[in-house]
Amino acid sequence: MKLTVTCTVNGREVRADCEPRRTLADFLRHDLGLTGVHVGCEQGACGSCTVLLDGATARSCCLLAVQVDGATVTTVEGLADNGVLGPLQEAFRSHHALQCGFCTPGMLATATELLRDNPRPTEAQIRTALSGHLCRCTGYQHIVDAVKAAADPGEPEAGEEQHRS
Amino acid sequence: MGEKLIGARMTRTEDVRLLTGRAQFVDDVRPPGVLEAAVLRSTAPHARIVRIDTAAAAAHPGVFAVVTGADVRAVVRAPQPVIWRPDPDARIPPAYPLAVDRVLYEGQAVAAVAATDRATAEDALELIKVEYEPLPAVTTLDQALAPDAPRLHRELPDNVAGRMVVAKGDVATAFAEADVVLRQSFRFARQMGAPLETRGVVATWDPFTSRLDLWLSTQAPNLARELLGEVLGLSVDMIRVRTPDVGGGFGNKFDFYGEEVVAAILSRVSGRPVKLVEDRRESFVATVQSREQHIDVELAARLDGTITGLRGTLHGVLGATLSTIGMSPCWTAAASMTGPYDIPAYEMNVVGVLTNKPPYGSYRGFGLPKANFVHEHLVEMLARHLGLDAHAVRRKNFIPPSAFPYVSPVFVFDSGRYEECLDMCLRAVQRAGWPSFVSAARARGEAVGIGYSFHNEVTGFAPSRIANQSGLQNAGFDEEVVRIDSTGHVTVRTGLSAMGQGLHTALAQVAAHCLGVPLEHVTVVSGDTEACPYTGYGTAASRAAAVGGAAVLNAATRLRAKVLRVAGHLLEVSPDDLVIDDGVVSVVGVPEAAVTLARVGDAAYRRINGLLPEDELPTLEEREVYDPSNVATAYGCTAVLASVDVETGVVTLSGYLIAHDCGTVINPSIVDGQLHGGAAQAIGGALFEQIVHDGSGHALTRSFSDYLMPMATEVPPIGVEHMVTPADHVPGGFKGAGEAGVVGGGAAIAHAVADALSDFGVTVTSLPITPPSLLAAIRKGAGR
Amino acid sequence: MKAAPFAYVRAAGVGEAVAALSEGALVLAGGQSLVPLLNMRLVRPHTVMDVNRLDLAHLHRSGADLVLGALTRHRQVETSPLVRRDVPLLAAAMSHVGYVAVRNRGTTGGSIAHADPAAELPAVCVALDASFTVQGARGRREIPAGEFFLGPHRTALAADELLVETRVPVPPVGSGHGVAELSRRANDLAVVAVVACVAVSEGTVTYARIAVAGAAPTPIRATVAESVLLGRTPSADVIASAADAVADATDPSDDLRAPAAYRREMAVVLTRRALRQAVTS
């Protein structure tokens, strides 16, 4: 038996039918075609499917689509505007903060929330904030650098090594 | 700017799509009418299949096809291929995509369903009734080798799949004449690459034309195509393999899996495209696993620290059947165990042992992390034993720069400046202030230490004949095509697979550099066996930049010559007097006498009459088949700063430095990223990751809650220093860097822990180091 | 990894929710544990009842108690100035629950009803003598935290009862708190965690609350350790003897992450650390 879900996704009201067992992740991917939402574990352990739900990060594999009826969802597809990358996306690009890109949409969602709630995070705070996200490619260094740079444009430029001192 | 692109920190051409959700991974591919499949997996570690009843599943609404082992066995022409056979006499038990008659490990594929969607397919799996008659299982080396051990394969006399010996020099004499003989045993747990995107395939096998069209998340599209042809009895022209964006590979997507065959057969049976994407839970039983080895060695040395001999036995704890690459990671560990050291006498017996666990396959490092752990442990052990500085022992035994090319037990190393690299790392450690940090922490009573490891690594794999000689039933060359179009822009077509390492950017940089065009004028096309050229091996073995990059460089260099000939004709000057910069060909010293590449392209494709020299054929395209004359040898030194909580056994890393030489660097950001990512995998392997089976064979590690890969909080800041010793035999001098980060990390972390716990005399001989085991070692040390 | 089919109802009121429960529905609150279990088909309810729209997100002070509606989210509790002022131990413990995306969704009621023996919130409730208000078809009742947790994922909540509210007695003004947690990775579920709340007056301990998560089938209150502290000066030796007393209260078991003996030992080590934090904070 399918239920109708109506919600606002990336600024547009959408409506689709799905089974109650459909997770929000599968709903966004398969019913709405937002394949920038990546599913890495389906148990809330990898963070790849993280989206912003009413402005707060949520792992879309741990929500049923029927729960978000009436809510507002932002996916990675909603972070850039008119062909222009958002500042975090641009920082990820200039700092080589992604390799395969599978974890990237989730990382961006969490970094967006972090910088909104804490515009000048320390490196430790950035690492803690990102610690719900697995990245198997980058070793996180360039991701941390990118978030730091997006937080404070006055920070040193890309490529500078992070030796402990 | 074109001239300086090799070596430039360019942002990647891949990134914008990936940052905006516009990439296409295999699960994003939805051909019209696509069905989704799911696989029923064995709940028994070892059992006879008494009966399978699929009637209820087949009748379930939404189900289009159900297949069992017998169905698949009836279609395939060959068992799953094992392409790497370092032991020509290896006993290779036949393995099929779905279990036939018996299951040999928990999670082995037993049946598969294609349905309207994945949830319906999973509903149908629950309706398949399988009756198992349990058989005793073996999961440990001791169980498998016991005289009365249950045999996995009745056609084999025991559970040994193969034996190999890697040797060099006179080992007996070395040990007879040694001043010192040290012994040590090492244990490495089962681990895996675990790319964030699981494996997946979308297969369309047209029942009318027999053409098979696959979308496959793979590192080796040409290999997959050849092996599908072998297994399904198709000529390769009937098979198209397309590779979408690949969400990480790390070796795990090099191997050829039964699911690829199953998806094809489900498609054939249903007449529809079939998508089969492994979910995370099943990835822990369905994707190859690696690293599990027991290594027992003896070292012979003189009192001055000169190592004169190394010998021992390496047991590979294999799965129940062999993966695509067979026992080669075990052989590679043995082939590489002398590392960067000039050890004149060496003998390693390699024994591959079958257990009731998933197959042992490719994972970044491919045997090298174990080899590195062993030789670096032995160097430190010898230094302690003789009261020498460990770096002094390293220096004494390093292969000196003058000794290259150096004949190691298997491979010939091309070049290296190991001592300089060690010094570079030591300087970086000083600059980072680690020594004073350690003294201050120790003064506060904290257990803090610094560990080192030096590694070398065979990269740029491999000359086809050497690959074949090592038992690989596949080549190691690359074919690349570089074309300039009628607008003067460049397209590079490659058979390599791009799975996140920045291959498109790297190859584009090489082409743009050689052709003198802006990077944004180059497009790299990969991922379609119908449109792209052939690669012998795929993207693996630290070879894409070295072999593919060299092929692009050669092709582009030849193409540049043609561009200059055409431009010379247009400008009525000799090609020798021309330079290309930023997409413009001009006369040296007369910049206004110039022609754009767009005009050259136009002359070569469209307005040919009078513009293209009479003796030139139209088009601007060069194809290069590059088969390297030798492997290359990258190397590096890793330093780790670690602290240990002596009350809990918890290890915290606070610094990580790598000095590295991979020859000419195409894009330092990409190489840094490769080293960082490898380091994180080394950290996972050293401190967190472990695939555990209980004594009766049940797989206990089934999710990311059990298989603990490091997060941003577990990985310390990582610094990288580059030195460059170009590989003289490789055009461009590239060596390859894909695996480097993972090779030396385990040993360096272990040594940092040992250094932190030197008061307790703790040394580490098995990985991963877990808090309970380390706490027990600390207790043991405290009680001395 | 797709859930087995189920029906979905969204409860509009507590009464309606309780009625659905008596027909065997399973409660979906934050979903951070339940949805993965559904996805893995480890639970297979015929009906999932979504309680997220119930009016139970209240968080306020009522007399001597802090009152948390069952739908207060971890993040809300963690960042609430009221919680930080009145029960800072609770706010501190919350910051150890997963990471922000988990805490944005996870609810206090869900965490308590899920009764993971290694979870922080149940341990805090046990330490501070919280009580739970549950609503059933036959009415409301209060269950003290000490009687609520029966085993791993087992509670005194009947199948047709809904947890609606948690009342946490506010510790004495001026008491200090400590949270010492050992987890394999920073934000993993604890291997062992200890929460402590201590008040010291004129050099002697006047109030001591200690609970341990991850060292028994349920969170446990370390009453013997508390009595070691009460009336004494919280010196290093006294803290050490109190912590030693925790070992006997534990009843750990082996699992993939740690053997039982290790958990028992860590309960002692972490109690020492939590108490040190508590007496210096």
TrEMBL record, chain A:
SUPFAM superfamilies named among the record's database cross-references: 2Fe-2S ferredoxin-like (SSF54292), CO dehydrogenase ISP C-domain like (SSF47741)
GO molecular function: 2 iron, 2 sulfur cluster binding; anaerobic carbon-monoxide dehydrogenase activity; metal ion binding
Keyword terms, alphabetized: 2Fe-2S, Iron, Iron-sulfur, Metal-binding, Oxidoreductase
Keyword NADP: no
Domain 2Fe-2S ferredoxin-type residues, every copy: 3-79
Superkingdom of origin organism: Bacteria
CDD domains in UniProt: fer2
EC number in record: 1.2.7.4
Protein's name according to its UniProt entry: Carbon-monoxide dehydrogenase small subunit
Automatic annotation (TrEMBL), chain B:
Source species, domain of life: Bacteria
MF GO annotations: anaerobic carbon-monoxide dehydrogenase activity; iron ion binding
Enzyme category, top tier: oxidoreductase
EC number per UniProt: 1.2.7.4
Positions of the Aldehyde oxidase/xanthine dehydrogenase a/b hammerhead domain: 20-136
UniProt entry keywords in alphabetical sequence: Molybdenum, Oxidoreductase
UniProt source species: Saccharothrix tamanrassetensis
Protein name as catalogued: Carbon-monoxide dehydrogenase large subunit
TrEMBL record, chain C:
EC number: 1.2.7.4
Pfam annotation, one family: FAD_binding_5
Every FAD-binding PCMH-type domain range: 1-173
Classification lineage: Bacteria, Bacillati, Actinomycetota, Actinomycetes, Pseudonocardiales
Family annotation (InterPro entries): CO_DH_flav_C (IPR005107), CO_DH_flav_C_dom_sf (IPR036683), Diverse_Substr_Oxidored (IPR051312), FAD-bd_PCMH (IPR016166), FAD-bd_PCMH-like_sf (IPR036318), FAD-bd_PCMH_sub1 (IPR016167), FAD-bd_PCMH_sub2 (IPR016169), Mopterin_DH_FAD-bd (IPR002346)
Keyword Heme set for record: no
Keywords for the protein's UniProt record, in alphabetical order: FAD, Flavoprotein, Oxidoreductase
GO molecular function: anaerobic carbon-monoxide dehydrogenase activity; FAD binding
Organism for this UniProt entry: Saccharothrix tamanrassetensis
Name of the molecule in the record: Carbon-monoxide dehydrogenase medium subunit
Entries under SMART domains matching the protein: CO_deh_flav_C
